[in-house]
Write a structure and sequence with these properties.
- It is built from eleven helices and 23 strands.
- By secondary structure, it is an alpha/beta fold.
- Strands 7-6-5-2-1-8-19 form a seven-stranded mixed beta sheet. The protein has a four-stranded parallel beta sheet with strand order 12-11-10-16, with helices on one face. A three-stranded antiparallel beta sheet has the order 13-14-15.
- The chain is globular.
- 43% of the residues are buried.
- The C terminus is likely disordered.
Length: 395
């Protein structure tokens, strides 16, 4: 009987992982199934571009995995039963269960409203394709004028504010930051960021906590009312509570607690990658929810799965976060390296060169998704028979 590998989610982490597993494991011994709620791959790193009015090429997952041996199930995951090693799904083909021997949980994250009154009802976001399209439609409805307030000074907030400002110059754009804009950047990078905001006409409200969102304004903690025809919420991300409900050990964030190989510390048949994994980096801190972390964790998870199934030594690769790459519209960007303690180094790259580098990264990621088994070896690894009790006990 083939070893059944089920990958939940076909975002950056899940899609890359499924392709890597198919590329390196023999189809004679393994069956790989990917479950994803949408039929298309979503370039989450570019959703702020989609929201601002730009067109993005779509990639159908059926085409992506055609000829790879990976089976695609377009369905929504509704539950996990780790005791029986099954996943409940529902989709156009109806509801059912998928059995697994190894599960890779890569369902990503969604926007976190943090219980702020009105945020869920009145604010838009760019955490998913459908929500980015809703924002796009709303911005188009403003015509040549209107006020947009982006809440959140993280990478998503900065990229969204600058992208909308560049693509729709007739709108008045503001960003509400709880602290200082770009406080984590090096001094020179921070000055570059402020220069970009000034050039694009983006107003910054620093040290401003938004306590409520209303249809035409946001309310700050100090009682101010900031006009907003459109509020864009980018103040953090959250994971689905499904893992916790299934009995997997999770952190306070709801992320699955994993060991250094991305294996669940409570259920050894389960691995996690991407935003839903609570993975500790080399600096002793949890990796941030980001596409960079998705790459690190999916490579670590697939390497560990392959090694354990084929009787090889699990590779000891690092989990080091190297830096942030921030788009500032299409013609400007910042690439900021960080040290081992995730403190910004003095060196940074900015301007058109950084923008071209970021564009190259996006194109490379898209190409990699479209060609998941590129470089398929002629001889893929066969599985080594291992008694299940040993497989469960191995670390």
């Amino acid at each position: 009987m083939k070893h059944r590998i089920v990958v939940l989610g076909a975002g950056y982490a899940g899609a890359f992982a499924a392709g890597n597993l198919a590329r390196r494991l023999s189809p004679a011994d393994t069956g790989i199934t990917v479950v994803n709620a949408a039929p298309d791959f979503v370039e989450r790193m570019r959703l702020h571009q989609l929201a601002s009015g730009q067109e993005l090429a779509s990639r159908r997952l059926a085409d992506v995995f055609a000829g790879t041996g990976v089976r695609l199930r377009v369905a929504r995951v509704t539950g996990i039963d780790p005791g029986h090693r099954t996943v409940a799904v529902t989709g156009e083909d109806g509801s059912g269960e998928l059995a697994y021997d190894t599960l890779l949980y890569a369902l990503g994250s969604s926007v976190a409203h943090h219980g702020v009154p009105g945020a869920a009802e009145y604010a838009f976001d760019v955490a998913g394709r459908s929500s980015a399209l809703r924002l796009r439609e709303r911005l188009a409805g403003l015509g040549g004028g209107g006020t947009v307030v982006v809440v959140g000074e993280g990478l998503t907030g900065i990229e969204t504010a600058t992208e909308i400002a560049e693509s729709r110059p007739g709108l008045s754009i503001a960003l509400a930051a709880r602290g200082e804009l770009g406080a984590w950047l090096s001094p020179k990078a921070r000055r570059h960021l402020r220069g970009a905001f000034d050039r694009l006409g983006v107003t910054v409200y620093e040290r401003t906590s938004v306590e409520a969102v209303e249809p035409t304004r946001v309310v700050t903690a100090d009682g101010r009312f900031v006009p907003a025809d459109v509020t864009v919420w980018s103040a953090g991300f959250a994971v689905h509570p499904m893992a916790a409900a299934a009995g997997l050990e999770v952190a306070g964030t709801g992320q699955i607690v994993v060991d250094r190989t991305m294996r669940s510390v409570s259920h050894p048949d389960v691995y996690a990658a991407g935003d839903c994994a609570y993975a500790i980096g080399e600096n002793g801190r949890p990796l941030p929810m980001s596409c960079a972390s998705a790459g690190l964790t999916n490579m670590r998870a697939t390497a560990a799965i392959i090694a354990r199934l084929t009787g090889r030594e699990v590779p000891a690769t690092g989990l080091k976060y190297f830096g942030n790459h921030i788009s500032l519209g299409r013609r400007d960007a910042i690439f900021q390296m960080v040290d081992g303690d995730v403190r910004s180094k003095t060196w940074f790259l900015g301007g058109r060169t950084a923008a071209r580098l970021k564009s190259g990264v996006l194109r490379s990621a898209g190409w990699g998704i479209a060609h998941p088994t590129f470089g398929l070896p002629k001889h893929r690894h066969r599985l080594t028979p291992v008694p299940r009790r040993e497989l469960r006990a191995s670390a």
